[in-house]
Design brief:
Blueprint lengths: L3 E4 L3 H14 L2 E7 L13 E6 L10 H11 L3 E3 L9 H9 L3 E2 L4 H7 L2 H10 L15 H11 L3 E5 L8 E4 L2 H19 L4 E5 L5 E9 L5 E13 L2 E7 L6 H17 L4 E9 L5 E7 L6 H8 L3 H9 L16 E8 L1 E2 L5 E2 L2 E2 L2 E3 L6 E4 L7 E2 L6 E9 L2 H14 L1 E3 L5 H9 L1 H4 L7 H11 L2
Parallel strand pairs: 1-2, 1-4, 2-3, 4-5
Antiparallel strand pairs: 6-7, 6-8, 9-10, 9-12, 10-11, 11-14, 12-13, 14-21, 15-16, 17-20, 18-22, 19-21
Helix pairs in contact: 3-4, 6-7, 11-12
The structure holds adenosine-5'-diphosphate (ADP).
Adenosine-5'-diphosphate binds next to strand 12 and strand 13.
């Protein structure tokens, strides 16, 4: 087992990893940017090194500085968390070349699943249902038109390198499509330095359901069941839960088995997530693999009792998974809400600033994963998430009730947050009936905001 791990991230996930390491008796080396200097969570690491200025490109994305910090700090492994360098195969490769284990999948699997088009091809080969669309990248507009006429409009133009909901465009007719392909490609070039786009049938009002995977380096891959993340705004998840509320068991099983098949055929190990969209008839289609730990991993931990960060560290150290598929049971229902410092009255713009008052809810079934505290100054340079409030109760109904009372207890002052909106969503009859699709929040937002 590793004696020291460098945590190549910041905020709540850095703290989550530091905590897991402490419980395992592993020392940690933290890194931070000038903007995060003095953050309280850094004092929980055994050492902390400044790796640059506030902008992520000048700190958290600088491979050479992170490797240097690992070497100076004597770390044998690096946990990348999510975002930043977590899905950067080059980074993983450099770590391993420097004899520092990258706590994540093998480089070949990261490359194979790294962009949406190549992972679609891996999925097709593994007999995992994909959304009808182009087989590879689009060559030109004419090819797009030809494919769209075959699969039928509406279609979705997607950037192969896209992420975080960026680089997607719906086309409802040929004219939209021709313009869209050009614009999407230019946008993708600008945002991701990769102009490649492809086409998928646009599934109207789908649900987003994803399967958590964990594999070891001895060929064992298990799924840890699914999460539903349909409550999204602009393709950004806001609420996640496990199990998916209305998913029939046969669909759940087929989806989980498909995800394991895909991981095995890609030679995958460590933690990963296979994302699907599900149409109104519960047909499911693979959309992408997230080759890293995800923000919403706690809901899976709650219902399975398995610590995913610990599992990641153990399998990276070469240990075998301590369980088999049939040992992984589901227990109760878990919901996570993302508490973001943003202003719903101002287009959900980030609302950085100092938290002047903070009272965190507690009690049975409540977990709060966050690095913030009273007096904490939220820097404007990174994402706006200040924490994740997670509940776990025997039934979904009880979980919703528990979340509502926890949100009622939550006091945060000095910055605007998503809490008022989250409360309205959780009280909404459509949400309570488990009938939310990925477009629901956008359709309902204005009306929801007017409610008390
Ligand atoms: P990103 O990597 O940018 O997050 P994804 O491929 O994971 O992109 O898709 C993000 C979201 O976009 C999904 O959760 C779903 O809501 C929507 N989406 C993706 N593909 C389709 C599709 N073919 N039809 C309809 N909606 C889709």
């Amino acid at each position: 087992m590793f004696q020291r791990i460098l945590v190549a991230n910041r905020g709540e996930i850095a703290l989550r990893i530091i905590r897991a390491c402490r419980e395992l008796g592993i020392e940690t080396v933290a890194v931070f940017s000038e903007a995060d200097r003095g953050a309280h969570y850094l004092s929980l690491a055994d050492e902390a090194y400044c790796i640059g200025s506030a902008q992520a490109v000048d700190s958290y994305l600088l491979i050479n500085r992170i490797i240097s910090a690992a070497e100076v700090g004597g770390a044998q492994a690096i946990h990348p968390g999510y975002g930043f360098l977590a899905e950067n195969a080059k980074f993983a490769e450099i770590c391993r070349e420097c004899d520092i284990e990258f706590i994540g999948p093998p480089v070949a699997a990261m490359n194979g699943l790294g962009d949406k088009v190549s992972s679609r091809i891996v999925a097709m080969k593994a007999n995992v249902p994909t959304v009808p669309g182009s087989e590879g990248l689009l060559k030109d507009e004419a090819e797009a038109v030809q494919i769209a006429s075959k699969i039928g409009y509406p279609v979705l133009i997607k950037a192969t390198a896209g992420g975080g909901g960026k680089g997607m465009r719906v086309a409802r007719n040929e004219q939209d499509l021709k313009i869209g392909v050009k614009q999407a490609s230019q946008e993708a070039e600008k945002a991701f330095k990769n102009a490649g786009v492809f086409l998928e049938k646009y599934v109207e009002n789908p649900r987003h359901v994803e399967v958590q995977l964990i594999g070891d380096q001895h060929g064992n891959v298990c799924h840890l069941w699914e999460r539903e993340c349909s409550t999204q705004r602009k393709h950004q998840k806001l609420i996640e839960e496990a199990p998916a509320p209305t998913l029939p068991d046969d669909v759940r099983n087929a989806m989980c088995e498909a995800a394991v098949r895909l991981a095995k055929s890609a030679g995958y190990y460590n933690a990963g997530t296979c994302e699907f969209i599900v149409d109104k008839d519960y047909n499911f289609y693979f959309i992408e693999v997230n080759a890293r730990i995800q923000v919403e991993h706690p809901v899976t931990e709650q219902i399975t009792g398995i610590d995913l960060i610990e599992s990641q560290i153990r399998v990276a150290a070469g240990e075998k998974l301590p369980f088999q598929q049939e040992d992984i049971k589901r227990n109760g229902h878990s919901i996570e809400v993302r508490i973001n410092a943003e202003d719903p009255d101002n287009e959900f713009r980030g609302s950085p600033g100092t938290i002047t008052k903070l009272r965190i809810p507690g009690g049975r079934g409540v977990r709060f994963d966050s690095h913030v505290h009273e007096g904490y100054k939220i820097p404007p340079y990174y994402d706006s998430m200040v924490g994740k409030l997670i509940v776990h109760r025997p039934t979904r109904e009880q979980a919703i009730a528990c979340m509502l009372r926890a949100l009622d207890e939550f006091v945060i002052e000095g910055v605007k947050t998503s809490i008022p909106l989250l409360r309205k969503i959780l009280r909404d009859p459509t949400f309570q009936a488990g009938q939310v699709d990925t477009r629901w929040l956008e359709r309902t937002l204005d009306e929801l905001m007017r409610r008390d």
